[in-house]
Amino acid sequence: MNTTPPSPKPSDTATSSPLAAVLALADHVAGIIGVAEGLLKARRVVQLDGLDQHVGRLCAGALDLPAEQGRKARTRLRQLVTDLDRVRQHLTPG
After folding, report:
1. How far is CA 40 from CA 46, 63, 92, in A?
2. How many CB atoms lie within 10 A of CB 33?
3. pTM (2 decimals)?
4. Which SS3 state, helix, strand or coil, does residue 21 take?
5. Rounded CA separation 2/50 (Å)
6. Between residues 16 and 60, which one has the greater pLDDT?
7. What is the dihedral of CA 39, 49, 53, 75, to 10 degrees?
8. CA distances from 25 to 6, 42, 44, 91 (A)
9. What is the mean pLDDT of the chain?
10. At 1, is the pLDDT very low, low, confident or very high (cuts 50, 70, 90)?
């Protein structure tokens, strides 16, 4: 079963601003994290294949933003780090 939400289509973000594209990808990553967290809480197997590629694209996009737009994305990106840390705690044997 594939639990990864579909990635934003290039056509969805190509005509929008770079900031909108980064935020759309951040929403996509947040969706993957949310699904993973729900499955982990239900003690289900989670496959995070490809998450690193989505995060890599997100980081690259964020780095390419002009400084002012980067500051606008900062809060959303920090929240993703917090969310990822929370999922990591579920994955760490305790």
Report:
1. 7, 31, 11
2. 21
3. 0.80
4. helix
5. 12
6. 60
7. 10
8. 11, 26, 25, 23
9. 87
10. very low
